[in-house]
Amino acid sequence: MLSLAQLLYKEVADLPIISPHGHTDAAWFAYNEPFTDPTALLITPDHYVYRMLYSQGISLTQLGMDANQRRGARAPDPAEVWQLFAAHYHLFRGTPTRIWLDHVFAEVFGIEEPLTAQTASAYYERMTHQLTRPEFRPRALFERFNIELLATTESPLDELQSHSVLQADTWSGRVITTFRPDPVVDPDYEHFADNIATLGRLSGEDTTHFDGYLRALRERRAFFRAHGATATDHGHPTARTANLAPADVAALYSQALNQGLDAQKAELFRAHMLVEMATMSLEDGMVMQLHPGVYRNHNPWLFEQYGRDRGADIPQTTTYVEALKPLLDKYGNEPAFKLILFTLDETTYARELAPLAGHYPCLTLGPPWWFNDSPEGMRRFRRATTETAGFYNTAGFNDDTRAFLSIPARHDLARRIDCGFLAQLVAEHALDENEAVESARQLAYGLAKRAYRL
Predict the structure, then answer these.
(1) Does one domain contain both 96 and 199?
(2) H/E element, 176
(3) pTM over 0.90
(4) 366-388, pLDDT tens digit by residue?
(5) What is the DSSP string of 396-424?
């Protein structure tokens, strides 16, 4: 079985990378400026890294991420931050983060010596020097990594300047945007009313009433489509959907803008907006992604001090069968509508998600996400979902990362795990070898292109 897994891996190891969902910065590729230093490249943008350090008592201020530094406090030297990180590199033993970082050090920078407090300075100096070279600029690395397509994620309030620069450029790399409407569909999002006013200004619509608000969202979706977007992404707390009467949702919207909504009403508004977004997806052809089940910014002190997305997001129980029924009652049988479902609640894999995707034409299962994006997490996903949903109701793999240099490592790991799973199926006489080869290629490359309409 091991030799077959290795043979399957050879079939897919060099396939181009399709990265259809992630959070890298489009400006890196638009302006192609050198990365400044290893700390800014590998530590500051990566919540997998700094949440582990924070868990051991290292403050985000020590890592150079304190908003108060804008008021005159001395920011730590990036080399000092790197030394601190290296001295605590043992914390990552056994984690997928360690796999990705070791891959970056060895395959991207050619450093085989283990990272420790004693080797930190040599690492930093060598990497900093390499980052000044043309072959380490963002576009060169993009090409070296054999990335065929990379999608970034932007708010509807983003004017997509970097994507406009990319569209006007002759560079052959394909970098597209993804429409993430959370700041203007979630009444609990900070500065929600101000965000809606900005949405109105950008779209030229009157967003003080619900009909104008919907027109504004359609206009921004069209703007994103013109900049390459093929998908939307929705980071709601739950998968709840609702079909409200027009007068009821208009009243909720007005209250959200003027008085604010309590938790129950805010959840109801978000639930209705998922159905509105599905309606728009059926109109404009954009694939819809749903990433629920996270208690975001669970640490209120950290949120107040450092802002959102600082590693304090925690998985929670999520249900789909009842939650999605209003949306599926309306659009579940529409093959032209595509909804990719993700979860952080692994207990739903076999019980809810695989049966739903194995029935409804509109549904596709996204790969193991975030805390589940690990060797064992990938294996658990395949074991729990394949018997009911098969492979072709899944979206292949996406890396969903802010850490650009980790993209090849993440895709390589997913390809290895899938090849091992396929080899086991061959050994059990569930597949023949030719089917395993074809399935491996689809999981590594073809399914993502199909799922995201690329």
Answers:
(1) no
(2) strand 175-176
(3) yes
(4) 999 999 999 999 999 999 999 99
(5) ------S-GGGHHHHHHHHHHHHHHHHHH
